[in-house]
Amino acid sequence: MSAPTTVSVFKARVGSYPGLTMVPQEIIAAARTKLTSYMEQNLFRDFRVFGFGSNLCVIIAHDSGPGAKNIIDIMWLVIETCADMGIRMKLHGVGEDIFPDTGAEHERPGRPEGTELSFSERRCNPFILFASDRVTPGSFNLPLLRIFGDPLGNPALSVDRTMSAGFSFEVVDLASSRTQVFETPRDLNRLIAYLGSGGRSERIITAVSHVDSRGQFLDGELIASASTPLIHWKDGAIPASGGLAIVRAEEGLPATGDILAPFSIPRVVQGFWERHGSAPLTPMVSTAPPSTLGSFAVVAALGFNLSGGKLIGPCDMFSGPEWTEVRSHFTRVAMYLHSNLLS
């Protein structure tokens, strides 16, 4: 197998308008210009930058490995440049997912919020990046569980020899900072019970790997990962600033359609109206976030392929006509829940 390539994704609220609706194109262009200058210095292999809802999102392909300080330093420089622009443009929510009080009395966290996968390239290397907004952490728990743990939702878990041995789920408890590992199908009931207790936003599936891939993948090689929040608010609540997840696909891994399928079910999550209510996590076109109801819980899916350390894509996975009907159904559910918010 080839030397591993690391795919790192980061997000930050660097300012949006109006309210939480979208990041200005001027800020996205500034981030792209700065990242291009770093790539030309051979500091990483490739990148993409986009805005979704109130978040600026960056994906970087590099050879520096997980947790690389040089990549983290680059991201802080990009975030600081964009946040300065957001302040000058008097945009909403600059830095609020990094500092509870916009950074006035707090040290900067060790790294921006994000997640990453490091893997050796195969014959083809598709993966999907999910970005959510206006929702508390844990929004990817149920989709990841259905993708890698539910043979009724993903039949390949039963018939594909590479996947039939099951998967290992790493779960972080935000309240205690403890990490536990569960193996499916053996620990499936325990995993469901653990995720369902202690608050839906406090326990997060952060990594998924094969239990036994029959030699198709390196031992311990991650096939999915999800981010955890940087901070808690002063009242102990977790901010509803969304999260990120990366899921690899195909050839011994779940098919693209099976990865997207859980997002077609209207699953109610916390975070609606800035974490004070609930709404279905609605799959949206990445360039068209909703403007209604103030704090619609939303998720975007961008498909990529990795080839020689270079990114091919993105393909907006929720832009197809079948998702239009899904969005209409989800919107009706959200509006009903919103009408009962204060009842």
UniProtKB/TrEMBL annotation:
<dbReference type="GO" id="GO:0006094">
    <property type="term" value="P:gluconeogenesis"/>
</dbReference>
<dbReference type="InterPro" id="IPR002803">
    <property type="entry name" value="FBPase_V"/>
</dbReference>
<keyword id="KW-0456">Lyase</keyword>
<keyword id="KW-0704">Schiff base</keyword>
<keyword id="KW-0312">Gluconeogenesis</keyword>
<dbReference type="Pfam" id="PF01950">
    <property type="entry name" value="FBPase_3"/>
</dbReference>
<keyword id="KW-0378">Hydrolase</keyword>
<comment type="similarity">
    <text>Belongs to the FBP aldolase/phosphatase family.</text>
</comment>
<dbReference type="GO" id="GO:0016829">
    <property type="term" value="F:lyase activity"/>
</dbReference>
<protein>
    <recommendedName>
        <fullName>Fructose-1,6-bisphosphate aldolase/phosphatase</fullName>
        <ecNumber>3.1.3.11</ecNumber>
    </recommendedName>
</protein>
<dbReference type="InterPro" id="IPR036076">
    <property type="entry name" value="FBPase_V_sf"/>
</dbReference>
<keyword id="KW-0479">Metal-binding</keyword>
<comment type="subunit">
    <text>Homooctamer; dimer of tetramers.</text>
</comment>
<keyword id="KW-0119">Carbohydrate metabolism</keyword>
<dbReference type="GO" id="GO:0046872">
    <property type="term" value="F:metal ion binding"/>
</dbReference>
<keyword id="KW-0460">Magnesium</keyword>
<dbReference type="GO" id="GO:0042132">
    <property type="term" value="F:fructose 1,6-bisphosphate 1-phosphatase activity"/>
</dbReference>
<comment type="pathway">
    <text>Carbohydrate biosynthesis; gluconeogenesis.</text>
</comment>
